[in-house]
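Supplementary Text 2. Reproducibility record for the structural model of the 269-residue chain.

All settings were left at their defaults, and a single model was retained for analysis rather than an ensemble. We include the record here because the model underlies the residue-level annotations in Supplementary Table 4.
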Amino acid sequence: MNTHLKRWLTALIAIPALVLLIGPGPRWLFHLVLCAASLVGLMEFYGITATRIPNFVRWSNSFLTLLLFVAIYMRHILLAPVIIVLWAFLPMTSFMLTHPSPQRGSTGDLGKAVFGPIYVALPLALLALIDFRPGGEVWIFFLLTVIFASDTGAFYFGKLFGRHKLYEAVSPGKTWEGAIGGLVSSLIAASLFLCLVDLHPLDIKMVVLVLLLSAAGQIGDLAESTLKRGHGVKDSGHILPGHGGILDRIDGLIFAIPVLYLYISLWII
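Retained model, structure tokens:
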């Protein structure tokens, strides 16, 4: 079975599951899946970039990530800044105790240890916060629609019309035509979504939001490609047939989530 067919089969199975999970499913299960995705994604990130960091750092940051999602679900939001600070303080303390003498590369490993949960878990925690907003699950469906349409449009427009490389040093297969196709596809999908669902008028602010979400998703895809290329890795993992790892599937989403969170926080009552 070729990779392209595997991607579509995985999507056909995952999409109905996501609809049930985000919509009528119990909220605790949705938050549990977000937490699980964060933990798996964090391990994938460390597997790509920081194979030498101590196990204590891996597991302590994983435990703090779990604690963050528990705190959010229990509505103890004031604990979140403390947990985020500990993401940095515990690795720094561990490296101070285990690397008392200067060692080449130890500071870089420390930076990767701290950056991992910020890159992977924090955006998904913001998605959990969006879920608590009035109509939050509909906003999440909207976000997924835009990002899925952007990814799909970029892929097929690039295959059909791609001539000019977007960023060959990072991702040789991506083209400007594909990027523009992703923007157009996301606008079409968002327009259809807003026609069917009473979420928000399709005004200039929403058009700008959709374009920003699509652009952020494409930048997130390139950013993860930079990580993998820098470490000679093709896929972040093999958990999703045809899609690679969790990070390969949510790389664009984790860049787009903060954009949506900011929009909802500033302009939606």
